[in-house]
Amino acid sequence: MSAQLRLVLLLGGLVAVAVLLGLLGPILMPFVMGAALAYLGDPIVDRLEARKISRTAGVCLVFTLFGGLGLLASVLIVPMLYEQVVVAIAKVPVFVQWFQQDLLPRLGLPVSAEAQFDAERLRAVIREHWAQAGGLAAQVVAEVSHSSKAMITVAANLFMVPVVTFYLLRDWDLLVAEIRRLLPRPHEPRIVALAQETDEVLGSFITGQLLVMLSLGVIYSVGLWLAGLDLALLIGLLAGIVSFIPYLGPIVGILTASIAMLIQTQELLPLLWIAMVFGLGQVLESVWLTPWLVGDKIGLHPVAVIFAVLAGGQLFGFVGVMLALPVAAVIAVFMRHGRSRWLRSHWYQGT
After folding, report:
1. Cys-Cys crosslink for 123: which of 19, 39, 93, 217, Cβ 3.0 to 4.6 Å?
2. How far apart, in whole angstroms, are the C-alpha atoms of residue 88 and residue 263?
3. What are the angstrom distances between the C-alpha of 207 and each of 20, 92, 107, 202?
């Protein structure tokens, strides 16, 4: 088989895989999440195996650890987030009234009585539907319950994630060994070297990026709490989570925190503290967190990162967004090797 034909077959196979992933996108979520959790847990299980603990027992320990941390976070954080949302919703009518009767006239944009939004009516609607803490949750559950298909899908995904994680984590080394046995013998050393470098880059990048997101979430939450914002935890965690996209974390954080602070206080001066919190967070991320925890492990320009995330979302939806940066990290490794080979090639050197 000629080299050109092999290249065509390889490219055709890659295109077929991409199309297949696009078609299977709606059911891939539990498998993607399970594979990600198994990938993160495998080094821990390997260390436990080195201490003479069986693979299955080590998987059970790691599985219990992941589940316990998730349950603890849910028990501690979710009620706090819900309480903050309820408090913020209750203050919306006050903000509407201040916006129409104070802020706009102060800016020289008075609103006529006929054009004003009825804040009292809004207050009555909110009091009617969310007078009790369970009102909002009850409405959400009721809306979702109308769609049996949606309920079945959500339940199946929640059930499948731990199942997929357990079996992949238990058989991870066996799967890797089987894939290695199937590699073409003449190219095995090069492919294994690329895979090992990719694994090192990918593992370090994912771990570092998760730590950066967690650190920023804590920094933003504490800073907004010190600034007196009621929704400090909710907005701080949101800004930390989306910070894997360059500059999106502070943009989302400043916008949402400013709106929440206006609703809460009806004053403009506290917005200065909001800007200081996210400004400090950006400085800490650029000068300390990212260089220390991530470094240059992915080797992509911020514009390339933004493009990867948007392209992943456009092609494969939320699954694509989750996979965008790991895939970009893998591509970056191959591009570095390709660049090295190109610089040594006869075409580049003109010989």
Report:
1. 93
2. 8
3. 29, 39, 48, 8
